[in-house]
Amino acid sequence: MNSQPNEAQYRLGFLGAGKLAGSVIRGLIRAKFSSPNEIIASDPNEQARVMLRDAFAVNVTTENTKVAKNAKVIFIGVKPALVLPVLRELHVDLVSKVVISLAAGVRLKNMESVSNARFMRALANTPSAICHAATAIARGTRTTNEDVALAQKIFSAIGIVVEVEEEQIDVVTALTGSGPAFIYTVIEALAAGGVKMGLGSSVALTLATQTVLGAAQLARETQLSPDDLRNMVVTPGGTTAAGLEAMKRLGTSESLIAAIEAATKRGQEMARGNL
Q1: What b/e sequence results for 88-109 when a residue is b if at least 16 CB atoms lie within 10 Å of its CB, and e otherwise?
Q2: Where in the sequence is the domain holding 71, given as residue range(s)?
Q3: What digits encode the pLDDT tens for the residues 131-147?
Q4: Could you give the CA distance from residue 88 to residue 141 in angstroms, rounded to a whole number?
């Protein structure tokens, strides 16, 4: 299905509209960076297409070629194992276009070997949907400064964006891409502690969520170090000190560091498998 004629031209096109790409689309519409009629997305999943069409009025199709031919800037939102096969299929329609891959574990050199597009990689995260994304971009060998400026403009509309070397992308994937799941685990654990000590589950979850949100916002606005911010809360011999001692004893910091390390190594493994 396609809600526009074949000759229609779109500002942005998405090959795949799953969790991450769908979040980016919703964020760009929310930020009014693009109107829905300027976006076209392809996805084989009917539920994903219907959601974008009915809830956000985005143009949708089952055909990747319609996106590749008719959009000015293309985002790759398919699963990593499908990136290179899709690019091989569409290589004629992608010549000289700006193509930004949202996929983890697929290197720029491998994408450039199958298509003459101007490739970049962008590792965003699901908070893109509410314009609180953390995104890192990496340029390819054909990327121009204008391409980088365009990517920065797009992703700045839905959060913060930094430029990194591609060798650092796997770490970014672990920190910002996987990071929300780690933070949700922290929120869940804080709430569970509240429940264990007598709060109702709804109250505990509300307070835990707001506590994490407020702490993050304070860190962002003050630009103080985590250590300085922590010391603003701790009183020697007080409740916070007792809680921090329990976290130290159980290796809470070490477990989060290990999570980033494990996710980074998995991204590196995926890259070796997507040649």
Answers
A1: ebbeebbeebbbbbbbbbbbbe
A2: 10-169
A3: 999 999 999 999 999 99
A4: 19
Phi and psi at residue 215, in whole multiples of 5°?
Answer: -65, -45
Helix H or strand E encompassing 98: strand 98-101
Task: Express each pLDDT in 37-53 by its tens digit.
Answer: 999 999 999 999 999 99
Q: What is the dihedral of CA 36, 112, 105, 31, to 10 degrees?
A: -20
User: Running DSSP on this structure, what letter comes out for residue 274?
Assistant: -
Of 100, 135, 169, the position where a domain reaches its end is 169
Strands (E), 124-196: 133-139, 159-163
Distance from C-alpha of 83 to C-alpha of 74, rounded to nearest angstrom: 13
| Counted domains in the chain | 2
**Same-domain status, 189 and 248:** yes
Could you tell me if residue 28 is inside a domain? yes
State the pTM of this model. 0.89
